[in-house]
């Protein structure tokens, strides 16, 4: 049976001092208690570690060998314990995150950067996915977490608000409505409105189109010719508007701007985790809460 590590650490102090009084004082225990520890250690090993006399203490051959070999063994054990503690705290492992393209401009990178920067033992891989596929992938364990715009349907997952955004419109800088700090919904509805393909995100598509359901005449909706066209060429005509969350304002191509819609309900971005959570999932949740608080993503 291996000796207990406390007695082994006490022995190393004594091996360095070669004096029971000084060693006991350095450890912070009484000298008789230290002597008892060393005798028990010798009994467990079945050999003497010290040669004691009234005037001196010396290491036996076995004691000298233990004093040399024990430090690296204890250091390895300390690393093993620290690894176990890190794993239990969710700071170790491989993390797979799926995110919708609409969250990839600012929200997902901010969370991923914090997860990587704060956990040296955590490997993070993030991939864009079709929004309707994210919740099933989390529930089935194909990814560990997801980031979606809108509360997407799906079983076996839990959804946590990560970011609440105002809703507005993207438009050309020279568009007549760009002169306003806020745009009335009815005024925006008078222009052609570009909505993303409904198949890409039915929840958000329906939320955005519902903003204009009472507008008269009925607005003219159309889908972009190219999904996630970063140049936003269809907005450059100076006529078309694109309903979008305020995160769009951070990645505007030249010549475009974003304005909020007055009295429009907001959109929420969610962190999606499995219903049964491991320490790693709880770590993601804690980091997400910290990022949301620091960046002001959620109302107080």
From TrEMBL:
<feature type="domain" description="HTH lysR-type">
    <location>
        <begin position="3"/>
        <end position="60"/>
    </location>
</feature>
<keyword id="KW-0804">Transcription</keyword>
<dbReference type="InterPro" id="IPR000847">
    <property type="entry name" value="LysR_HTH_N"/>
</dbReference>
<keyword id="KW-0238">DNA-binding</keyword>
<dbReference type="Pfam" id="PF00126">
    <property type="entry name" value="HTH_1"/>
</dbReference>
<protein>
    <submittedName>
        <fullName>LysR family transcriptional regulator</fullName>
    </submittedName>
</protein>
<dbReference type="InterPro" id="IPR036390">
    <property type="entry name" value="WH_DNA-bd_sf"/>
</dbReference>
<dbReference type="InterPro" id="IPR036388">
    <property type="entry name" value="WH-like_DNA-bd_sf"/>
</dbReference>
<dbReference type="Pfam" id="PF03466">
    <property type="entry name" value="LysR_substrate"/>
</dbReference>
<dbReference type="InterPro" id="IPR005119">
    <property type="entry name" value="LysR_subst-bd"/>
</dbReference>
<dbReference type="GO" id="GO:0003700">
    <property type="term" value="F:DNA-binding transcription factor activity"/>
</dbReference>
<comment type="similarity">
    <text>Belongs to the LysR transcriptional regulatory family.</text>
</comment>
<dbReference type="GO" id="GO:0003677">
    <property type="term" value="F:DNA binding"/>
</dbReference>
<keyword id="KW-0805">Transcription regulation</keyword>
<dbReference type="GO" id="GO:0032993">
    <property type="term" value="C:protein-DNA complex"/>
</dbReference>
């Amino acid at each position: 049976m291996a000796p207990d590590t406390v007695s082994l650490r006490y022995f190393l102090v004594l091996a360095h001092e070669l004096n029971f009084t000084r060693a006991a004082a350095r450890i912070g225990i009484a000298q008789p208690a230290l002597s008892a520890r060393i005798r028990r250690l010798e009994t467990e090993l079945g050999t003497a570690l010290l040669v004691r006399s009234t005037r001196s203490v010396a290491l036996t051959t076995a004691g000298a060998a233990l004093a040399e070999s024990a430090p690296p063994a204890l250091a390895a054990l300390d690393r093993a314990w620290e690894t176990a503690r890190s794993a239990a705290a969710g700071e170790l492992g491989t993390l797979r995150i799926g995110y919708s393209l609409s969250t990839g401009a600012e929200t997902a990178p901010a969370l991923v950067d914090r997860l990587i920067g704060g956990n040296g033992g955590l490997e993070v891989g993030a991939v864009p996915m079709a929004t309707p596929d994210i919740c099933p992938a989390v529930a089935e364990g194909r990814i560990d977490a997801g980031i979606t715009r809108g509360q997407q349907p799906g079983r076996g997952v839990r959804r946590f608000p990560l970011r609440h955004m105002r809703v507005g419109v993207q438009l050309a800088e020279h568009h007549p409505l760009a002169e306003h700090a806020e745009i009335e919904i009815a005024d925006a509805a008078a222009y052609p409105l570009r909505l993303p393909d409904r198949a890409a995100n039915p929840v958000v598509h329906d939320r955005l189109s519902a903003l204009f359901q009472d507008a008269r005449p009925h607005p003219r909706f159309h889908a972009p010719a190219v999904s996630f066209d970063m140049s936003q060429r269809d907005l450059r005509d100076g006529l078309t508007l694109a309903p979008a969350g305020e995160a769009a304002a951070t990645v505007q191509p030249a010549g475009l701007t974003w304005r909020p819609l007055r009295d429009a309900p907001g959109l929420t971005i969610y962190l999606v985790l499995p219903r049964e959570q491991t320490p790693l999932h709880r770590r993601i949740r804690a980091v997400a809460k910290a990022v949301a608080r620091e960046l002001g993503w959620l109302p107080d």
